[in-house]
Design brief:
This protein is of the alpha/beta class. It is built from 10 helices and 10 strands. The radius of gyration is 19 Å and the shape is globular.
Length: 314
């Protein structure tokens, strides 16, 4: 029997016990019209996609403007009764992957789901993803949407359901997002890896790279600026390595000054040192700004090897 057939058999057993789960949505607080409605999220059990040789489902959430897709790649030795850590591959563009390559397919090509026995998940966004909550549009709540994805995955598969089982991977915009989500929610996410990301954006850069579509206002962007988040990290975040910072290309050590007055990768590395935040750092991955140019494997290898309690059970 082929490996994907084994995966299908295991999942069919699992799906027999699953139902669609919806997070209820009470009405918005009438005393505060700016309060967004409670988040909702529904997704049927995933079905096997033979074209991509993985599992897919369609997501409906009031944190997004339209339906989106959730793709799940299972290891060949997937066992529904055993715990698996989950790698969340954060997209860098709205809609299905196009211009910048396909992060989940790159993980599959490099066999990283099998090498590290990971469930690997990616999702689409209908607005350019910067992993922020829009200041005025409750249908663009990307930070909340990502967390709802994680919660759905943990209802659907057996995972540690704890920070050590939630790993984030991204580059460029989604590298920013991976680092931002970890810094903002260190009690929820376990570790993050970013390659060639604009980690040192200044407040005056907020109109770059379609950022206003995701956040709405400069004030909202300032709430997410990574430089400020680093300075606020609690002492317990400094007890172990939870970040992998890699470069370089557009935002690496020596960019062409188009994006910032100094290199994002090296400057962020030095900022972390000044704030006593341990991390892995490499600036030698000088490949094209794309998912499929060879940086994903070393990034994932470093990410899964970070110190921390491994809660998987055999």
């Amino acid at each position: 029997m082929r490996s994907h057939d084994l995966n299908k058999a295991a999942i069919l057993i699992l799906l027999a016990h699953l139902t669609i789960v919806a997070i209820p949505a009470p009405a918005a607080d009438p005393s505060n019209p700016s309060t967004p409605p409670a988040p909702t999220f529904t997704a049927p059990p995933p079905t096997f996609n033979p074209t991509r040789a993985l599992w897919s489902t369609t997501v409906k959430s009031n944190c997004q403007k339209a339906e989106n897709t959730l793709d799940i790649l299972l290891p060949v030795k997937f066992d529904a009764d055993k715990l698996h850590r989950v790698l969340y591959i954060l997209p860098v563009e709205a809609g299905p992957p196009k211009r910048w390559g396909d992060g989940l397919m790159e993980v599959k090509r490099r066999d990283l789901h099998n090498t590290h026995n990971l469930i690997c998940v990616t999702m689409t966004f209908d607005t350019i993803p910067w992993y922020m909550e829009h200041a005025t549009d409750p249908a663009i709540r990307q930070e909340t949407y990502l967390r709802l994805v994680v919660e759905w995955v943990e209802r659907t598969y057996k995972t540690p359901a704890a920070p050590d089982g939630r790993l984030l991977l991204g580059f460029s915009k989604s590298g920013w997002g991976a680092v931002s989500m970890l810094l903002r929610h260190p009690d929820f996410y376990g570790a993050a890896a970013a390659w060639d990301a604009p980690l040192m954006l200044r407040n005056e850069d907020w109109r770059s790279f379609e950022i206003p579509k995701a956040c709405g206002t400069q004030e909202r962007f300032a709430e997410y600026r990574l430089v400020d988040q680093v300075a606020k990290m609690p002492a317990e975040f400094k007890n172990q390595k939870r970040l992998v910072i890699l470069g370089e290309k557009g935002f690496g050590t020596n960019p062409d000054k188009k994006y910032a007055p100094a290199g994002h990768t090296q400057d962020f590395h030095e900022l972390l040192i000044r704030n006593a935040i341990p991390h892995e750092y490499r600036d030698d991955l000088k490949v094209d700004h794309h998912w499929e140019t060879g940086w994903v494997k070393p990034a994932v290898d470093l990410l899964v090897a970070l110190p921390g309690k491994d809660q998987r059970k055999d």
